[in-house]
Amino acid sequence: MRDEKKNKDVLEEVTTGEYKYGFVTDIESDQAAKGLTEDTVRFISKKKNEPEWLLEFRLKAYRHWLTLEEPDWALLHHPPIDYQDIIYYSAPRPKKELENLDEIDPELLDTFNKLGISLEEQKRLSGVAVDAVIDSVSVKTTFQDTLAKHDIIFCSISDAVKNHPDLVKKYLGTVVPYTDNYFAALNSAVFSDGSFCYIPKGVRCPIELSTYFRINAANTGQFERTLLIADEGAYVSYLEGCTAPMRDENQLHAAIVEIVTYDDAEVKYSTVQNWYPGSKEGKGGIYNFVTKRGLCKGRNSKISWTQVETGSAITWKYPSCILLGDNSVGEFYSVAVTNNYQQADTGTKMIHIGKNTKSTIISKGISAGRSNNSYRGLVRVSKNADNARNYSQCDSLLLGDKCGAHTFPYIKTGNDTAIVEHEATTSKISDDQLFYCQQRGIDKEKAIGLIVNGYAKQVLNKLPMEFAVEAQKLLAITLEGSVG
Amino acid sequence: MGKIKKTVYPLEEILIRHFSNHFERLSSHDIPKVTKMRREAMAAFQQTGFPHKKMENWRNTDMEGVYEEELAVFDREIPFEKALSEIFLCEVHGFEARVLSVLNGSFYSSEEEKLTVDKNGVIVGSLAKAMQEYPELVEKYYGEIMQQTDGFKSLNTAMAADGVFIYVPDNVEVENTFQIINILNKPKLVINVRNLIILGKNARLRLLHCDDSVNHHAGFINKVSETYLGENAELELYKLQNLNNETALLNQTAIHQSANSRLKVNVLSLNGGLIRNEITDLMNGEGAWSDIRGLYLMDQQQHIDNQVFVYHNMPHCNSNQLFKGILDNEATGVFNGYIYVARDAQQTNAFQRNSNILLTKTAQVDTMPHLEIYADDVKCSHGASVGQLDNEALFYLMQRGIPFDDARMLLLYAYADAIIKEISISALRISIEDMVKRRLRGDLSICDRCVLHCSNPASPVIFDIDLSKI
């Protein structure tokens, strides 16, 4: 979950028109000046009281970023981004709290109800100042106790820099180096905050960790950085985002997620992304450029990515696994839905380096409206990856004749014992299925929701239970109005 | 990306120099359109230079070695002495082909056979000659089908002086199979060849296109073939490649398909240092149908790159691609299949499949089966696999008393058969079957030169012609 504050922004925008004007002026002191220079980087670092080594890291990244060109290989079309027209740091700011749910945009409430989010949670999400806040504090406390009992570190990355500098220093940038790509370099230079999690040896995290309930949940800002380490034999299931519509004033997001797993460790990383996709006419919306990568460092380790992508005007995201340890396993399950003028170019990379490594890719793309949805993935089996095994399945579903569905798999095999399989199909919803549902009295829109859910089942099943239920409803909502 | 001008390679210099020094001779047979195209294309080539590994379609094929070579441009006409068909003795029982030879980039025949018009109106011969005798025909199609998407195509447009021209008028079904033999017999040549094949309405043609080496010299062939299929026309195209390990062959074929035309392509790559086949199938008419297959058997340090682009620009078209490969030793293979379905190209069926067998740890394959689809009422699928022979099948054969080597051969052969069995000319199929068997056994080398006498290995192979004399 991004944060409650941003939600508030949107609600405020919708409900109280005059509010935002008086607001921007008085917090100027807490913002970096527009544009990106070395000074901006220093400013951010200073604001956050960072040690010298982190500033160095940021500066190196910034200088490298200057040498790079924005990548243009993805099948995405957007007006050029002016990187000097962005405010790279703005401190979390207090918001006016709403009195009760009546003040909330009815459309948003409607969505909450459809998603089946409880009333308490609705209030929390939309920032209504009621008992919910107290509730969440109590929730937090319980969480903190549980985690402390198991010596699990779970905090914001700024806190981690202060309290566990050795750990951060050891792992930051090891999986996604700042030289990795354009957006990774940008993030490394200006990342504002994010989460840090360390699961000690042999610990099985008893709860699903979620940024949504995160202790010290603050405004993580647009350049989020997540670092997740599972030591030997550890297990954690980590959730990012939430199903509720997340509206955000930031146009550009460039996040990094790094995961390291040691021997026998397992990390399950689930994402539900539902940011503002822009208007029906394709105006506005979030540009989301994310670098996510996991390193299976130890033997028998496992990293599993599950994502449900329904938001953002532009999605550029390739959660990857480097299968370095022998017998390690990488998994990628994805549902990406695009509607109206949304564009998604998403997929994964599975790099087999260790022996007997296995990877599975299941990608389900759904395009509607005038959107474009691409799967782009790489499976690489290096010379010494004996007995590597990969299975990929990438299906696309087209709803409407103005949208596009594309598949760009890359398979590089350099080992004769490898077995790599890739399959993909593209089709529309069959008229037979639709007819069957309709003649049973299910209206067309619901029928499509039903069929789409069945189509995405393989992936949705991989989500933690509560999430899965919401995600199913989310699919139907995203596709609302796409049926002509 | 790619905007930065890189170093100028020796070969690039040679070509540019040759172009400016010998432009008169190069364009001596041209129609005005072609001369104009040459100038534009050379300007474009000087801008872009050779394709390099930073380019998306070239990332897996490194031609740098070729660019560094000091190759010579060969544009002299070779006086005709002896028909190549005699040298290559194409005696396949029941297979009667009309042989069209291209030697070092020029159409090779006696003067009176440079361009012939058959009774049924079929025009066959040298492209340079056709430009003079049928300028309106050439003008209409030349350069209209192949897009100048990279440096090699520009280079070919600028430099190619000759090649094969075939025109089949409306409603003519050609009975004979036409066979194009493309040969290099001089060392260290860079050759630009251009073919133009036009099939009118309801026309039908079977074409066998052979690329062979007759020696072990290095060479580079940059070939562009433009093919136009009129309404309801049918073309069967077989490409057979058996080259030496020093030769780099770039085979760029673009096919325009009008409504209800049918296209069958079968690419058989058996040997060759570096082979890249680019097939662009433009389905520009409703109801077009195509089936594009390929088989590649590579070993040593050979490199094969198959690039297939199928554009479904109109509704109701069907396409199918199947490419299979076996890679041995340090061979590397690339498959890049691309299906594009345009908006409103409804009722499209497009299938694509690539499978590979790696026999050694050092062989490598990169496969990229891409789909780009903008219409919803379509059925498209693609698949790719890399693996080994089925151990259970191997075990089954061995427990029936078939030794390991034979069992393995049998399975490899069965694997390749999906491509070979599609060859509709039975005599040709038999000889190719035989050749693939020999290739898999390792008996077939480029010394066999022309492939077409393989069906009867016992018959004397006549090779003792002194090639230096032609």
Please render the helix and strand layout as text.
The complex is a heterodimer of chains A (484) and B (470).
Chain A: H1 4-15, H2 19-25, H3 38-47, H4 52-67, H5 106-115, H6 119-126, H7 131-149, E1 153-156, H8 157-163, H9 165-171, H10 182-190, E2 195-199, E3 209-210, E4 225-230, E5 235-241, E6 252-261, E7 266-273, E8 287-296, E9 302-309, E10 314-317, E11 320-323, E12 329-338, E13 343-346, E14 349-352, E15 358-368, E16 372-381, E17 389-399, E18 404-413, E19 419-428, H11 431-439, H12 444-460, H13 465-478
Parallel strand pairs in A: 2-4, 3-5, 4-6, 5-7, 6-8, 7-9, 8-10, 8-11, 9-12, 10-13, 11-14, 12-15, 13-16, 14-16, 15-17, 16-18, 17-19
Antiparallel strand pairs in A: 1-2
Helix pairs in contact in A: 3-4, 4-10, 6-7, 8-9, 11-12, 12-13
Chain B: H1 10-21, H2 23-26, H3 32-48, H4 64-68, E1 72-73, H5 84-88, E2 97-103, E3 106-108, E4 115-117, E5 123-126, H6 127-133, H7 135-141, H8 151-159, E6 164-168, E7 173-184, E8 189-199, E9 204-213, E10 219-229, E11 234-242, E12 247-257, E13 262-271, E14 274-283, E15 289-298, E16 303-312, E17 318-327, E18 332-341, E19 348-358, E20 364-373, E21 378-387, H9 391-399, H10 404-420, H11 426-441
Parallel strand pairs in B: 1-8, 2-7, 6-8, 7-9, 8-10, 9-11, 10-12, 11-13, 12-14, 13-15, 14-16, 15-17, 16-18, 17-19, 18-20, 19-21
Antiparallel strand pairs in B: 2-3, 4-5, 5-6
Helix pairs in contact in B: 3-8, 6-7, 9-10, 10-11
